[in-house]
Amino acid sequence: MTHKFESTYYRTYDGQIKGPQDRCHEWSDISSHEFFVAVDEPYKKEYSSYMDSTTFLKAYDSVPEEKRCFFEQIGEGKACKEYYDIDWTLASSADESEIKRLEHQVFAAFLRVRNQHASEFALDEEHCRVLSASNSKKLSLHIVIPTYVFENNHQHQKAFFPAFQRFWCSALCNDEDAALLKRIDDGVYSRNRIIRILGSHKFLDPSRPLKRAEWHEPSMLADEEEFLITSIGLDSIKVTNDLYEVAAARALSTVTRKPREAIQSSLPKHIVDAVTAKFEQTEHAVQFFEMQGYIDRPMDFHLERKVQGYCIVCERGHDRENAFLRLVRSGAIFLHCYRSSIPGKEVCKRDFALAVEMEAAVALRTRHGLSHVDIPERAQYLTHFHLAPPLEPLKLVETVNQPPSLLIRCDTGGGKTVYLEALVKANKESKFVAITPRRTHADMLEKRFHRFENYQDRLRGVIACERLVIQTESLHRIDMKYYRDDTILILDETSSLIKQMCSDKTHGNMHNLNLQIFERLIHEQNGLSVSTQI
């Protein structure tokens, strides 16, 4: 506890039973204080309170600018003005005039969509107070609306925000507005939240103090109290349920999900997970519940609509129409609408690694949960359900004229390397070439596998040894005449390896030659081709 800035400040110390915020609130109850603050100090924040916001501002005026690291506490159950925090990392550096233009553009988009969302409570820019902490690399805006006051920060304001958020993907909001407004931080409506105060900076970033937005004249002329979120004016309109319930009702009428029997896709789980993850990164995903598979359409995934939204296929808004995703062999993902016969629109660009996974899955005819290891039917089937020693059918017998391929897939720690070790030991007379995307993998495989040589130990010249582990960018050093008979090729971490093989930066002027050697190793070797993948 220290006395400074005309008040008592509480901080964390060893052996304390209650935290600094709790002790600050106890003291404020005794002292009948109504305005709460925190100050950013070198190690931890310190918390205090003042009789009211006017008392605080008088003390604040005497604090030197370099020591202004103050935050306003928005306590649990505390009434607050409507407020928003927008952060946007810029793709490239911007000068002062460009920053102002971008800030104005974001603010205009915010105000337009907010007014469409809650038309009964529409505002013009005169009612808003805008603060900026932007620099050449980051856009940072705080928007405070003194006109409307929520009775409770983490309930009423927090309930209003998700409804507002869902509105962005509706037919009434264009793509440009939605993209700009996605930068609103929804984490500022938590219990006992602290928000930076006008004129203050973060202790570790003094170059970005929070200032009035110079392009917004009403903010330049406003009193300091108007920027304080918990300082409620007498003419403010206090709302509890009205604002957010009316807005939420308009915000795309959330659809109740109908019960539907869960269907597992016949594709391997890791491919389904990859499709899910890629689609969830798109702006369209918020309109739908999680995707589900079809019994007879393994490459399609059903999407049941959750909220009203803009359909990029039909180019119009939809209330209840469902959709589906289609994964194509190139690794791209297309969104289709049931309402339209128009071809689907590509929502996830082609992914070469995913395309390789698709080809492997089709070749293996793998069903999720069936097995971890398969050899395709053109050779012989080897199914191994438990990837742990002892591993029995590892000695491979030539049963067909064409060399077999083996794909080993399981989660991290599931036994891929253990399986490969047993495979190496069971085929003592064979030559091995293990290709890996990283040097650390090469070092690991050298230690784990019996009698393997690391390409890093062969500093010069062409490499020809019975058991070799090598990184992708050094493939041009392999003596292809040596590795033609009875050679087992191991491709470690296939997806990463394929991405490495496609990188000009990785290979430099040896890229074409490395690709040729890679292709020849696959096509010309007469032994087994083994791939591992998580």
UniProtKB/TrEMBL annotation:
<dbReference type="Pfam" id="PF02399">
    <property type="entry name" value="Herpes_ori_bp"/>
</dbReference>
<protein>
    <recommendedName>
        <fullName>Replication origin-binding protein domain-containing protein</fullName>
    </recommendedName>
</protein>
<dbReference type="GO" id="GO:0006260">
    <property type="term" value="P:DNA replication"/>
</dbReference>
<feature type="domain" description="Replication origin-binding protein">
    <location>
        <begin position="402"/>
        <end position="504"/>
    </location>
</feature>
<dbReference type="GO" id="GO:0003688">
    <property type="term" value="F:DNA replication origin binding"/>
</dbReference>
<dbReference type="GO" id="GO:0005524">
    <property type="term" value="F:ATP binding"/>
</dbReference>
<dbReference type="InterPro" id="IPR027417">
    <property type="entry name" value="P-loop_NTPase"/>
</dbReference>
<dbReference type="InterPro" id="IPR003450">
    <property type="entry name" value="Replication_origin-bd"/>
</dbReference>
